[in-house]
UniProtKB/TrEMBL annotation:
Keywords: NAD. Residues 10-123 form the Gfo/Idh/MocA-like oxidoreductase N-terminal domain. The keyword NAD applies. GO terms for molecular function: nucleotide binding. Pfam families: GFO_IDH_MocA, GFO_IDH_MocA_C3. This is Gfo/Idh/MocA family oxidoreductase. The keyword NAD applies.
Amino acid sequence: MAATAGTALRAGLIGLGAMGRHHARVLRETPGVDLVAVADPGGDPHRVAGGLEVLQDVESLVAAGLDMAVVAVPTVYHEGVALALAEAGVHTLIEKPVADTSEAGARIVEAFASRGLVGAVGHIERFNPALQELRRRLAAGELGEIYQIVTRRQGPFPARIADVGVVKDLGTHDIDLTSWVAQSPYETISAQVTYRSGRQHEDMVLATGRLANGIVVNHTVNWLSPMKERVTVVTGERGAFVADTASADLTFHANGTVATQWDSIAAFRGVSEGDVIRYAIAKPEPLRVEHEAFRDAVLGVRHDVVTLEEGLQTLRVAEAMITSSSTGTVVQLGAPGQAPGGA
């Protein structure tokens, strides 16, 4: 069904766990959206249903008559739930990663595209104020030519994760945001992973690669560190931007312009320290901004969501990281839509 002019979009939510509880809150806070149905076969552990009945499955959710839905179930169930929503003609936001495998992700992409539905992936970091401002300044050419993007995402193990490793859970954040701020897909990737927590999935990854536009990238991701870090560093010809998405701060370190009299330093043909600026920026909640973007995409007002196609490409890079670590090869990524191959 479709909302008529002046009426709120009827929204459903499936999955009331660690992330679903936040979606429930923000859906209720988003103007023009009415949360009318929730579902989770495991019940409502965080008591976010309010006066709504907790339905048992996606079929019951669809029966409520929805314009849009949010999928926050474990990754292994994404495909089945998403395909049911597509079949019912429901515009859908799927928590990242889009699916547990790229084959499943491709089926989801086709299902929504063939029906002309809006499908989006919840790569929430794109909507972080620091990264939004970083992307705007890079697009304006403030850094000049971009040389390198380095990300660090590490912290304690999140008990919410059970069905994927750190690459598909946390690493996909960095893959997506890197490609987005650079406006370029990945060309190659090489990675090393470790298994230290006794689980079947990897819990640490170090990856390095190159984007199609020549920018070199590096990612440090783990959930075995007592120190929590969420940092993106973009270095270019005029200096470096540092985006801290935990605090939503963006800082610029300019190349120095003051000549040095220290011969051993002056002989180095590089840059020196210059001014440092921490920008004062508005800091709306990223999840709220993400939901507003999805609402507007459903209404046809604008379309700056993370598309299913982008989510699938991110998943393919994540799988290439895992392949690289198991084969000891540099994986060559094909053009978007093509499967990666070893090099």
